[in-house]
């Protein structure tokens, strides 16, 4: 009930809750029976596509959460690998040999170098465009100064 109330108050979202149980004959309604009727009426007047757009049942909700949770470690491993390859790259620039790296690590290092070059080229392009825009904006103009007449 607290979460529905927060959603209603903090986000200005029309919300209601009807909580019932197979084991309890008394059900709970929030905020009131009249408010629940208003929200349901508004919901029923919406187009069917809009009604079901973000609707999920508990099974689908849990499945989505599990997928998201499974993606986190993959994302973290990729991020860690990029950091590791960045460290190897900087060490190689200070003279450390790459002979101890296996083929997978060398491929990852090559990918990292390619990505870094693409980033650099993109930044150079943006800087060149900004410089061109500045030059266009600072175009010299002739000033017309009225002649003064001495009497």
TrEMBL record:
<dbReference type="GO" id="GO:0046983">
    <property type="term" value="F:protein dimerization activity"/>
</dbReference>
<protein>
    <submittedName>
        <fullName>Uncharacterized protein</fullName>
    </submittedName>
</protein>
<dbReference type="InterPro" id="IPR036879">
    <property type="entry name" value="TF_MADSbox_sf"/>
</dbReference>
<dbReference type="GO" id="GO:0003677">
    <property type="term" value="F:DNA binding"/>
</dbReference>
<feature type="region of interest" description="Disordered">
    <location>
        <begin position="62"/>
        <end position="83"/>
    </location>
</feature>
């Amino acid at each position: 009930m607290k979460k529905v109330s927060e959603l209603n108050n903090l986000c200005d979202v029309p919300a209601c809750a009807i909580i019932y149980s197979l084991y309890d004959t008394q059900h709970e309604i929030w905020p009131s029976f009249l408010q629940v009727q208003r929200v349901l009426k508004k919901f029923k007047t919406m187009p069917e596509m809009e009604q079901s757009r973000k609707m999920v049942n508990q099974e689908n909700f849990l499945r989505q959460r599990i997928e998201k949770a499974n993606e986190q470690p993959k994302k973290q491993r990729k991020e860690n690998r990029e950091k590791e390859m960045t460290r190897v790259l900087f060490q190689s620039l200070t003279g450390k040999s790459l002979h101890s790296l296996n083929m997978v690590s060398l491929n990852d290092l090559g990918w990292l170098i390619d990505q870094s070059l693409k980033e650099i080229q993109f930044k150079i392009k943006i800087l060149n465009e900004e410089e061109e825009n500045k030059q266009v904006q600072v175009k010299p103009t002739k000033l017309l100064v009225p002649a003064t007449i001495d009497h």
